[in-house]
Design a protein that fits this description.
It contains four helices and no strands.
């Protein structure tokens, strides 16, 4: 079963989410001090950091499980006979 389109979709969504979260962190660092001191801005900064960690953990776990599934799906006996099996 070919699921390369799902892998591509996960990769693109991850790229966009990391870019968006990074831009949010850059904007937070460059905003004036009187804006940074508000509770809502501090809360959104914490949520951005948590979402960045969540996205990174999700991608690592998803790709690890995908590689593990592909590794276990290989039929060793057939692949070592080089096409000369009966």
């Amino acid at each position: 079963m070919d699921n390369s389109h799902i892998m591509l979709l996960i990769g693109v969504l991850t790229l966009f989410s990391v870019i968006g979260i990074s831009c949010g962190l850059i904007v937070h660092d460059n905003c004036p001090p009187h804006v940074k001191d508000r509770d809502s801005v501090k809360t959104s900064f914490v949520f951005m950091l948590i979402s960045l960690i969540f996205v990174i953990c999700f991608v690592i776990v998803y790709f690890y499980l995908h590689m593990l599934h592909n590794h276990n799906a290989i039929d060793i006996k057939r692949s070592t006979q080089m096409g000369h099996y009966k």
